[in-house]
């Protein structure tokens, strides 16, 4: 009807880059030629627009009135989406598979209304924080995470390629089955299961580079000396007699580090490899997956490596009795550098050297990174047995252990 829609999601398809509209329905986003913009808002049909040379794109969203009969996970059971009365968001799994993200938590970003996903930092392997409809409790605003029926600490080590469905329970009615632990909402993740038939082998990979789009210009040794001289009495107590035409190649600066940012920087890279097998018979089906993810940071000595293995096997004991086994193992190794490394390098004096006149290392951003080891190794393992007994067509008994 021509009215503005505040809070509508606008993002680049296949990425986590996006924004939301303001109170007037306006937005601002940086894009490239050939990108596809996706516009979405709860209750309205999703629209996709291909970008060529446009600078202003106005969109009118249409109300979505189609009937939906999708089966979604709700608490300990399943319901048709058309029968759900609580506030539940379901994430499009096909979109998750196409996104170059490292974890299930990142895949949620920008995909559900009322769900805020914030990256804790830009460090490789650092997780994200999720808030559902703002801060619900004091001290901890994280929702409850449930993966294959098991409550877990976080979902940063869940491989997006293994996800079959993701539901977010946002209100008290839909999350009540979990009690007070669900005060901040619930994120439900179900991993893939096997399908009867011939074995299917899937392999996917991607590789990406990371580098600074633009760096801040810093002073060289000669320029910094002149700067100190002009500000004598304020910046430095001594006033020097300098030749203002001297360059950074002057013998006085032969050991000086002219650009600390450049010294601690490197070209980053992200790579991911995933191999999965699925198949089975009428009595046994299986899904096996192995995944490797690596993130090399843009600051030297910063990186993150993770290995994931998952095995989901289903045994059909009788026509109405099914046993499911789930095995999960994850090993991650994270090298952490000081959080202020880039900031320190940016403001460090270009007159400083790596070593003093005695040959010993001085205190500087490079030394702080290379001489201090901060390695975090995390191992996570889960095993569960799930017995499902269809007592009647309308009554199912499930036990999880």
From TrEMBL:
Localization: Cell outer membrane
Any Pfam family hit: Plug
GO terms, biological process: siderophore transmembrane transport
Any coiled-coil regions, as ranges: none
SUPFAM superfamilies, sorted: Carboxypeptidase regulatory domain-like, Porins
Keyword terms of this UniProt record: Cell outer membrane, Membrane, Signal, Transmembrane, Transport
Keyword DNA repair attributed: no
Topology versus the membrane: Multi-pass membrane protein
Keyword Transmembrane: yes
PROSITE patterns per UniProt: TONB_DEPENDENT_REC_3
GO terms, molecular function: siderophore uptake transmembrane transporter activity
TonB-dependent receptor plug domain sequence ranges: 81-186
Recorded GO CC terms: cell outer membrane
PANTHER family listed in its UniProt record: HEMOGLOBIN AND HEMOGLOBIN-HAPTOGLOBIN-BINDING PROTEIN 1-RELATED (PTHR30069:SF29), TONB-DEPENDENT OUTER MEMBRANE RECEPTOR (PTHR30069)
Protein name stated in the entry: TonB-dependent receptor plug domain-containing protein
Species this protein is from: marine sediment metagenome
